[in-house]
Design a protein that fits this description.
The protein is mostly beta strands and 82 residues long. 11% of the residues lie in helices and 44% in strands. It has one domain. The longest helix has 9 residues.
Amino acid sequence: MRLAGQEAAVILTEDGKAVLEMAAVNLPDSPLISLSIEESEDLGLWVRLPRQDGMHLFLLRWEYILGVDLPGGVAKVVGLKG
């Protein structure tokens, strides 16, 4: 599935939330965190994060992600279809 260019809600582990807090990101109280995905790769998702000095690209590793929620019918499926 191609995730680049998508807005998605991501559910993070507690460690993932701590990592984003260390990166100076203000997190909502909700377990779903809305992110703009620039690229996905084997290590994780490259996402845009707003910080005090502007937008930054940040690698959010898969080990910190419990789930990715995309709006219905938005993502492109790549590869074999059953």
